[in-house]
Amino acid sequence: MHVRIMTFNIENLFRRHSPAYGPEIAGRFGLSSEARRSQEALLAEAAALMLEDEERGFAAQAIRAGRPDVVLLQEVAGSAALSLFHDRYLTRLGGPGLPYRAVLEGNDSRGICVGVMSRLPIDAVTSHRHLALGALFDAGFRFEDHGIRHRSVAHDRLYGDPATPVFCRDCLEIRLEIAGQPLLLFAVHFKAALPGRADTLLARLAESAGVAHLIRKRAQTRGIERWVVGGDLNDFHHIEGLADEGHGLAPLLDSGLVIDPMERLEDHKARWTHFAPELDRYRQLDYLLLSPALATSNPAAKPEVVRSGQPWRAERVQAQRFPRVGWDRPKASDHCPVVIELEV
Fold first, then answer.
1. How far apart are CA 306 and CA 337, in angstroms?
2. What does the alpha-carbon distance between residue 85 and residue 266 come to, in Å, rounded to a whole number?
């Protein structure tokens, strides 16, 4: 049986409205200063709603373009938002529904969660938001083993505490039964590189080690050989085909537990999933990592990156864009969906 698995950072579903639109839109309508003050809030909300409506439509088109059976989503603000997106935008484009859905509350104080939509029945969804650093320390993980020698006082306080949660959001474990055999999906959204990549390195090292720990505990000890790790890892291990050693993904990528099929794309310029305009840099932040057994049984499987919803500022895009996509906005997301078809 063939299964198409997608990961997509859908960029804050649904977006919190920003009052910054008010003065701009009010000015375009030619309103007086007094009228602007009274109308800016309403105009801002109207502008944000119109923009959001277009962007959610583009996001739905991007998902449909990838034809997934299962979608691992990041930046979902709850199950109600996900169901509304599915029913209002995705189903109206036609094609099969994704009726099996789940979003569990994670550790993010803003309510940005990890979710899943599936055409296939889901056996179980397990949150690992409560996994703590102590479990990794007990299993032998040490930051010092990954070149970390000096940390700030704040880092020592946080990442030296065994009670600190490993995942800044969550790692959802999604179990499917396909052809009588289990397939485990680990859906993640690692710590963003803000205010800087080096400043948040410890978080992604811990999260990478946490995923590896869960694979060993939840899959290997049960004799399960098929798993996929999917999500926005917010870090990159190569730039334009050149290895980059300053990343926080080593505990996972070097564990022997996963294979990155993106490496099968010979053209390194075809591997990017996110464009950072402030750096003018194209990077792979989004991953679908396969277990060795899945990689071996699918030697020709290569990821497909859906770029038709990317804004025109990402000038490297060669795909035909969806009509009405803007220079910066509206767009489907700041991330590209990535999908891979597997024989399971």
1. 5
2. 35
